[in-house]
Design goal:
Layout lengths: L7 E6 L6 H11 L3 E3 L1 H7 L7 H20 L3 E7 L3 H13 L4 E5 L4 H14 L9 H10 L5 H4 L12
Parallel strand pairs: 1-3, 1-4, 2-3
Amino acid sequence: MDASPGPRLILLCGLPGSGKTTLAKRMAREIPAVRLCPDEWLEDLGVDLFDERTRDRLERRFWAHAQELLRLGQAVILEFGFWARSERDEKRLAARALGIPVELHYLAASTDELCRRLEARSREGGQGTVPISRELLDEYVKLFQAPDDDELALFDTPPLGRRG
């Protein structure tokens, strides 16, 4: 593929098991882009993936780093999940203030499909994986604010030849 198309912020939105990491890894290779994944970093640092205080601190640090990379002309993928509309709005508005295009890739799947994927992922193991029960996933589904068509229209579309 050609050289990087320039700075671009890519937000991956979805619940656990929706395919964010798989998509992020593929996009990072193809674009190319820097991929920032809190789950992998937390695991590498020996931190419990459910430690919300540390996760919040890490995501704030990643966001500061992402803005530096964007200013330097690098494409960046944030693999945070972006469960809340307010989080997505914050990143979109901040990147636009820098003059940077922003994509939102929403990965949706039924709760049953997410459970199936999470069970398979737990069996396989791998970096940044932690068992998530059906009960916990049901709680996550209640908290998750899926983007609607009006919100999706606020984001830039991926360049031709690249779709999520």
